[in-house]
User: Which sequence fits this backbone?
């Protein structure tokens, strides 16, 4: 497991899968161990995946300054990784909350990115709102599932401001295309993989400058791919479609039947989509 030093001296780890041209991969969570990405459904057969353990997660060290968990400051760790790998330019992939880091990197250093891949992106960095009705409409796509009634009731409680801890647990099936044993195991591991202290800092005041980021993405002419899951309650497809419109050279793909982790729901389709885009 390779280690390199961030600009503030924090030791950061990354994991390498496959061969070929490198693809830098940023996990979500926020601040979740990159292990949950696996090999992105087999994408490692097409590209060399470089999975960064963000500071304070996985095998990376805990920084002395907890404020460095803030999203805009994590951008510097991506730059330190690029320098460590000796890449003049790179292809960059982010998933979920990790896409906030990726687009802020692009905003700061567009000349360093050849192609950008955003998988079920979080829109926090560009301030696109996901309404309760959009989430309910997405949820209703699962109305024939045996767990739907309880999960939808919990969603109603959340969107009306009456959520309990049980409510958040009950909506878990909405984030997966299939609520099977593999999905349930994936969900169960999530809490163990996330640095809760770091996650609380990730979106702190000053983490995002949506106007500046939107303007920068509007001038980013390199190819961008945005992948949404058709039934993803977290990054709803209409929101991802709106996000794609911020780029002058974006491709939007809505993967049928997929949730927030599309490589788990249909690995062949996911890998085919991303590999074709990357070339």
Assistant:
């Amino acid at each position: 497991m390779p280690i390199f030093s961030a600009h503030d001296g924090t030791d950061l780890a990354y994991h390498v899968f496959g061969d070929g041209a490198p693809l830098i991969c940023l996990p979500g969570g926020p601040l979740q161990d990159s292990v949950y990405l696996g090999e992105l459904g087999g994408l490692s057969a097409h590209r060399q995946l470089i999975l960064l353990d963000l500071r304070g997660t996985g095998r990376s060290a805990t920084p002395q300054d907890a404020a460095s968990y803030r999203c805009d400051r994590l951008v510097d760790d991506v730059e330190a990784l690029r320098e460590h790998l000796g890449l003049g330019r790179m292809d960059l992939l982010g998933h979920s909350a990790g896409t906030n880091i990726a687009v802020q990197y692009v905003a700061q250093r567009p000349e360093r990115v050849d192609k950008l891949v955003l998988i079920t992106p979080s829109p926090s960095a560009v301030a696109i709102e996901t309404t309760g009705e959009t989430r309910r409409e997405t949820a209703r796509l699962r109305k024939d599932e045996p767990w739907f009634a309880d999960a939808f009731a919990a969603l109603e409680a959340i969107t009306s401001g009456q959520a309990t801890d049980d409510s958040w647990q009950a909506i878990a099936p909405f984030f997966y295309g299939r609520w099977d044993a593999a999905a349930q195991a994936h969900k169960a591991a999530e809490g163990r993989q996330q640095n809760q202290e770091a996650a609380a800092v990730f979106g702190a005041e000053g983490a995002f400058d949506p106007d500046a980021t939107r303007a920068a993405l509007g001038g980013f002419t390199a190819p961008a791919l945005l992948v949404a899951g058709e039934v993803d309650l977290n990054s709803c497809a209409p929101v991802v479609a709106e996000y794609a419109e911020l780029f002058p050279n974006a491709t939007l793909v809505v993967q049928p039947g997929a949730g927030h982790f599309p490589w788990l729901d249909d690995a062949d389709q996911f890998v085919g989509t991303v590999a074709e885009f990357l070339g």
